[in-house]
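seq as requested:
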Amino acid sequence: MPIYRCRVNGKPVQIDSWDPQQPLLYALRGIGLTGAKIGCGLGQCGSCTVLLDNDPVRACMVPTASAAGKTILTIEGLGTPQKPDTVQAAFIAEQAAQCGYCTAGMVLAAKALLAHNPRPAVAQIKDALAINLCRCGVHTRIIRAVLRASGQLR
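struct tokens:
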């Protein structure tokens, strides 16, 4: 069985998989990380978003084999309930979640955006998060949360 070594949430991890094309999402869930959600399975909804070498990817579309030697950040590795990450704290402050299914993907996509562009304009936020779908309609709150996390909103 092939073994893929990577860093997940700052820790070295070994993923065993018979199928190198197995979606990374299933491998992550297999090691107990269930924050990335199974949504469309087609890379269209963003509920499975994780950061792979600091870039947002759809874990349902990334083969496990392609994650070998890379760094993966899931929502479980971002912050804690006692000390949430800046983006998580902003989402909480703005009440930018309703059902919560898209939230992990939105938070990680926002985290990646802010790492590349610490003070994005609203249009840039919309563009960066366009690949993450929210059916609850809290898009305005999500945008405000990203602005808050960037320090542009108090």
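The first strand starts at residue 3 and ends at 8.
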